[in-house]
Amino acid sequence: MSIPTEVEEVDYESLETTSVATNMLAGALAGITEHTVMYPLDSIKTRMQVITSNPQAIYSGVTNALTRISSAEGFSTLWRGVNSMILGAGPAHALYFATYEKCKEMLSGNGAGHHHVAHAAAGACATIVSDGVMNPFDVIKQRMQVHGSVHRGAFECGRTILRTEGLSAFYVSYPTTLMMTIPFQSIHFTVYEYFRKTLNPSGNYDPKTHCISGALAGAAAAALTNPLDVAKTLLQTRGAVEDTKIRKASGLVEAFKIIYRRHGFAGFAMGLKPRVLSHMPATAVCWTTYEFLKMIISRQPGFENNVTTVPVPAPQGHSRSPEE
Questions:
Q1: Over the Cα atoms of the chain, what is R_g?
Q2: pTM exceeding the 0.70 threshold for the entire prediction
Q3: Residue 235: other Cβ atoms inside 10 A
Q4: What is the enclosing helix (H) or strand (E) of 219?
């Protein structure tokens, strides 16, 4: 029996040529999983960021918000608007991960060592593409999350916004969203890639590494960009409040001025705790799911990777005979 002198050793983390279809399918499923699992905390974050004078809609903390919303409105209220998020998360995250992987490859971010600029730039490109798809769904989601929302379905909510406020209402926060998500995703991908390579130098598939790296990346990005998220929430929910100044706010600068006048610098930290608490497990779930699905899908017919094999010497003591 012949003994092979070479085997195929695949460095999972350096698969630069994972097909676009693989990245899109894995990304779509990962995005839906992430947003669905963490949706109640996202609802609490939105409630805590909305500027209102209604005492029933002012919460002292995450536990207080969870208890009061569940008892007064029912636990299912925390899931209101989740169908809008699911509808948007699939296509948005498909584009998000496919764009990131392609840009990272083009910018030579797949090589050995740390490539912070390449990862940050690829992350920025990915969020510009995905947010263009996701923003309208995010507006609908937040309109359904606010206290006293009369909307009971995503399509009904979308039709109402379109009829009463026009198409621009779905994108009034888009510039602010990009001003938040570009630094968010640049931080997110840079931190993730740094810890992924630091914790797993071998590059072999390791779900624990993806989970820890994702959580650390999500926490860092969420905390540093919270002021921009508060401004984005104000703009996206302006049509659901009675405050005239908020309803007329049309951009980031106006949103910042309103927040500062009402709450001072502390206003920019509104919702910080639930935002970090939701993003840490969300990004951990998203990356773990994405990397797992990418590995599984890439092995299926039609989704194979173009992998460069690395020759590995045969064990010592064996040599190839002429007959072999």
A1: 23
A2: yes
A3: 25
A4: helix 207-224
H, E, C per residue of 119-154: HHHHHHHHHHHHHHHHHHHHHHHHHHHCCCCCCCCH
Q: Are 7 and 194 in contact (CB under 8 A)?
A: no
Q: In angstroms, rounded to a whole number, what is the distance separating the alpha carbons of residues 220 and 225?
A: 9
Q: Which of 120, 135, 129 is nearest to 24 (CA)?
A: 129
Q: What tens digit of pLDDT does each residue of 222-247 get?
A: 999 999 999 988 988 888 777 888 88
Q: Which residues contact 84 (CB under 8 A, 6 or more apart)?
A: 137, 140, 141, 144, 154, 157, 158
Nearest-angstrom CA–CA distance, 22 and 182: 24
HSE-up (13 A, CA, CB side) for residue 103: 21
Give the whole-angstrom CA distance, residue 264 versus residue 241: 20
Orientation angle between helical segments 82-106 and 116-145, nearest 10 degrees: 170
d(CA 100, CA 12): 17
User: Cα–Cα distance between 100 and 305 in angstroms, integer?
Assistant: 17
CA 257 to chain centre: 27
Phi, psi of 9 (to 5 degrees): -110, 115
User: What's the DSSP call for residue 307?
Assistant: P
- For residue 170, the tally of other CB atoms under 10 A from its CB is 19
Which tens digit of pLDDT belongs to each residue from 173-213? 898 889 889 999 999 999 999 999 999 988 888 999 999 99
